[in-house]
Amino acid sequence: MNKIQMNNPIVEIDGDEMTRILWKMIKDELILPFVDLNTEYFDLGLIKRDETNDQITVDAANAIKKHRVGVKCATITPNQQRLEEYNLKQMWKSPNATIRATLDGTVFRAPIMISKVKPVVSCWKKPIVIARHAYGDIYKATEHRVTEPGKAELLFTNENGETVRKEIFNFTAPGVLQGMHNRDDSIESFARACFEFALDSKQDVWFSCKDTISKEYDQTFKFIFQRIFDEEYKEKMDNAGLEYRYALIDDVAAKVIRSEGGMIWACKNYDGDVMSDLVAAAFGSLPMMTSVLVSPDGNFEYEAAHGTITDHYRRHQNGETISSNPLATIFAWTGALKKRGELDDNTELVSFANKLVEASLDTFESGILSEDLAPLCNPSEVVKVPSNEEMMKEIRTRLEAALA
Ligand code: NAP
Ligand code: MG
User: Fold this and answer.
1) pLDDT of 316-341, one tens digit each?
2) pTM for the full model?
């Protein structure tokens, strides 16, 4: 069989622990036999990040800017315990934070739904996509631990040296302080990314924040979203029969729970962090969540929403047979291959990506399930819970049939 050719590369970002093992299996069994894979490879495994003083992460982010499409494996974000475990030079920043800071943009998280796993929220019929603004707020904040009495102020100095000064709090005892920011242009591109995604996927957009309490900060988000909608998207959304609505986050949280799904819920950075895990878990399983970072200048980075599955890795190191859920990592690859195909007018590559999605879902729909999902299904519908190696073979058999 002739392998499918790729004119332009995908930026391939390798990672850590169990997902690094899955990464290789997916490539070896499900991609390389069929595609003459063209990637620019970056090893973001923690050892390599430490060796290069994290330069490799910066290089990978810049490569996505160059080639426009990247696919990333889960990576360890170092903490004190990892510092000791890997004998690191320092506690390197989260690679995702570095990549998001370079690319800017919005992270869209969509659940992978299979009929055998019913959402915990019984009225949900369609996926709920969380659009998470991936810039600023507490993720780029300056913090201070106040240990003695004193006055905290907010100070802004413009280029002419003129200042604006506001009192934050007069401390008489220890406490904490935090200063954070966001930028109008980043919020504008967040809004545009949401409306573009909405038009593309034919879903309504609900944006929520807390403008009643945060009268400058959150209100700015609300106004910008409304302005971008009115000026640039109202007509297109109307024509597509789609709507935009703004409401307070507590109100939206309640409405989403009682809805049947099918909307894009646009959230500020922290809200999106929390809500995407909540929505993923409520759809049945945390690993069943895909993630794509869309940058304002049209770059795309695909990944699984979950981490490196450390506990599975430890068990693997102890020689145990492991059944991890590979779907989100497979979908990261198919997302990137499909986008590469669309950008390059490579219909063969798009079709391959679609077939790999179908083969993976068919495998799970036929009752061949990973260990995390089996307990969530009706026991009579579980045919087999294979090891990771066997799971790849099951999917490959179906993929080969679809390609034949
Ligand atoms: P995690 O790797 O997502 O795992 C949390 C739990 O979720 C696992 O213990 C497992 O539950 C379940 N799980 C996640 N993915 C699974 C899969 N594919 N198949 C089956 N079960 C799955 O999160 P974590 O344990 O908090 O973090 C581990 C490491 O990942 C950390 O070093 C963290 O920094 C990193 N991390 C990276 C990213 C990223 O690169 N995007 C995101 C999050 C975390 P059971 O134990 O019940 O099997
Ligand atoms: Mg999170």
Assistant:
1) 999 999 999 999 999 999 999 999 99
2) 0.88
Question: In this structure, which residue's CA is closest to atom 23 in ligand 1?
Answer: 307
Ligand 1 mean position, distance from CA 341 (Å): 30
178-204 pLDDT, tens per residue?
999 999 999 999 999 999 889 888 999
**% of residues, the chain, pLDDT over 70:** 100
CA–centroid distance, 30 to ligand 2, in Å, is 28
Please indicate, yes or no, whether residues 159 and 70 belong to a single structural domain of this protein.
no
Q: Looking at the structure, do residues 263 and 400 belong to the same domain, yes or no?
A: no
Domain shared by 192 and 46, yes or no: no
Nearest alpha carbon, ligand 1 atom 16: 287
In angstroms, rounded to a whole number, what is the distance separating the alpha carbons of residues 193 and 290?
Answer: 17
Q: How far apart are CA 336 and CA 73, in angstroms?
A: 12
- Which ligand 1 atom is at minimum distance from the Cα of 310? 28
Three-state SS annotation for 388-404: HHHHHHHHHHHHHHHHC
Residue-number span of the structural domain to which 221 is assigned: 118-141+183-283
Which residue reads 């700015």 in tokens? 220
Distance CA 377, CA 395 (A): 20
My answer on whether 342 and 229 are in the same domain is: no
Centre of ligand 2 from the C-alpha of residue 273, in Å: 5
Q: How far is the CA of 374 from the centre of ligand 1 (A)?
A: 18
10 Å CB burial of residue 132 (0-12, 13-18, 19+) is buried
* Extended strands (E) in 113-210: 129-133, 142-146, 150-157, 163-171, 175-179, 204-209
- Both 208 and 104 in one domain: the answer is no
Domain identity same for 203 and 221? yes
- Residues flanking ligand 1, CB < 6 Å: 74-77, 96, 286-287, 303, 306-311, 324-325, 370, 372
